[in-house]
Amino acid sequence: MTATTELPRPKALSEVKGWFRPVDQQLFDWFLSRQLDHQQPGNLLELGAYMGKSAIFMASYLREEDAFTVCDLFDSPAEDAANDKEMNKSYSTLTRRAFEANYLAFHDKLPEVIQAPSSVVADRVEKDSCRFAHIDASHLYEHVHADIEAVRDILLPDGVVVLDDYRAEHCPGVACATWGAVATHGLRPIGVTGTKFYGTWGDPEPHRDALLEWLSGRTDMWHEVQQVAGYGMIRIDGKKATEPAQPVSRHAKAPTPAVGASSAPASAAAARSQRPDASRPVPA
């Protein structure tokens, strides 16, 4: 992207470049909503942002007191030749300016942006401070392994970690690091979709039981439970999953407001109240 290239002005989340399937949007919504319903403290963290699609979605679940940290190289050189080659091959159009333009189309304030390799996160984000972390940075085993170890220290005991590309054929390093953490580093699986792994270093049973109850009431997602490393892990097929309520862009054509409706941007709490499942009982 050159200095003269027009920055993006997305009218909807679907116009933001990136890979964030409806099934994973539903699960992000479920986990993050459940944390808010239970008044679970903690901040949010994302390693690897691309153009900001999942970061924009996650930010809708921030409370006034929460911090949101996003770490990405953007246009910076990678920390080693192999990672630099991967970045140049896969993300040649990635720029921080585009990320910021996309993000600010949906939210008033940017997250805390760390433009650096994810290896610096352990020194920049406080230990035991986050309730939810999304890892979608390097695909190289050594880096993913280090990201997982860093996030383990950063997450609160019952925090949830999401790992992208855990089974993609072009990312064997991610698979190795993910299942290695399950086998030898105490990461406990909660569930998987076709693209993302959901787990915790805390007790997975409360998450799993509540998730199974929620899934049993849905007709757009198939699921089963498989035993993996001594844990019951939920496998979810979400090819037919519908999207949850979406963040609203300031560039969207404004609908005619209802009589008495406020024209002010909806807060995160207001956005939550509009989601289709917001009226469900608080899960145990």
UniProtKB/TrEMBL annotation:
A molecular-function term among this protein's GO annotations: methyltransferase activity
Pfam families noted in UniProt: Methyltransf_24 (PF13578)
Ranges where the record places region Disordered: 240-284
InterPro entries per the UniProt record, alphabetical: SAM-dependent_MTases_sf
UniProt keyword list: Methyltransferase, Transferase
Any GO BP: methylation
Protein name stated in the entry: Class I SAM-dependent methyltransferase
UniProt-listed SUPFAM superfamilies: S-adenosyl-L-methionine-dependent methyltransferases
Organism: Streptomyces sporangiiformans
Gene3D superfamilies, sorted: Vaccinia Virus protein VP39
Biased composition (Low complexity): 254-273
